[in-house]
Write a structure and sequence with these properties.
7 helices; 6-stranded antiparallel β-sheet; BCAT-like_N; 283 residues; D-amino Acid Aminotransferase, Chain A, domain 2; 29% strand
């Protein structure tokens, strides 16, 4: 079935969606995106995703074109038109088209935002692959200084992800001045002596929705949580390492830069949190 998209108020086949070449998202990556995971036809944590969308738009001085209620209704319609199931809903809002290419933001009264949504299947990982765990690499974080904004300007992320792709690794874990930040499309967690550690959500990382859910689940399970600066070397001394994202859930990392993490197997705290996260998804 061909994916159904939503563009500026209209549902249409994705292949028929068109934008102007003068769109500032196309010319400047002047836009914000969001991805809402859907399981068995039901979006997970949709309000949190839409609040973050609003926050990112506010960060670039752009009003949200829809209310949370309007977004929710439209997303539910898009899910239905795409057959439900386990999918990811991609949302993108750009500043729209302007009569000429100019670096400063054009006046709001002279532009209309381009609002686009589509849906696609979520990545699938076999039980065997998850049970064996995944490999990751590390690299210098050369992205821009506002990684807290979910910007469509992702070239740096793509370049860094390509590094791990070419080494048959699931993710590139990033460090800035020796401190762990995040993955190219994931947040990072470590387990050390029974404690859950993750970098603090400042300008250097995106405060992932799955990250927030996992922290809440850990606290409910009485697992001590530490949110703080973490040196990159801590990855190699951890008892467990895993990454989180809305489209990949919680994935265990058992080898980093060809060095084995602990005993080289997914750990018990990752397993416990994964089980409770799966229960959350099914509610």
């Amino acid at each position: 079935m061909q994916p159904v998209a939503w563009l500026n108020g209209e549902f249409l086949p994705q292949s028929e969606a068109r934008i102007s070449p003068m769109d500032r998202g196309f010319l400047f990556a002047d836009g914000i995106y969001e991805v809402v995971p859907v399981f068995a036809g039901k979006p997970l944590a949709i309000e949190q995703h839409l609040i973050r969308l609003t926050q990112s738009l506010e960060s670039i001085q752009h009003p949200n074109p829809l209310s949370i209620e309007q977004w929710t209704t439209t997303i539910e319609q898009l899910i239905e038109k795409n057959g439900g199931g386990d999918i990811g809903v991609y949302i993108q809002v750009t500043r729209g088209s302007y009569q000429k290419r100019t670096h400063q933001f054009p006046p709001l009264e002279n532009t209309q935002p381009t609002v686009f949504m589509t849906a696609s299947s979520l990545p699938a990982f076999s039980a065997e692959a998850i049970g064996n765990g995944f490999h990751a690499i590390t690299s210098d974080d050369f992205r821009w200084g506002r990684c807290d904004i979910k910007s469509v300007a992702l070239l740096g992320h793509c370049m860094l992800r390509q590094q791990s792709f070419e080494q048959d690794a699931i993710e590139t874990l990033l460090e800035k001045d020796g401190w762990l930040t995040e993955g190219t499309s994931s947040n990072v967690f470590l387990i050390k002596d029974g404690r859950l550690l993750t970098p603090k959500a400042d300008l250097r990382i995106l405060n992932g929705i799955t990250r927030q859910l996992v922290i809440d689940l850990a606290r409910q399970a009485d697992i001590p949580v530490e949110i703080r600066d973490i040196h990159i070397e801590a990855l190699f001394k951890a008892d467990e390492v895993f990454i989180t994202s809305s489209t990949k859930d919680l994935l265990p990392i058992v080898k980093i830069d060809n060095k084995t993490v602990a005993n080289g197997q997914p750990g018990p705290i990752w397993e416990k949190l994964t089980q409770t996260y799966q229960q959350l998804k099914s509610q």
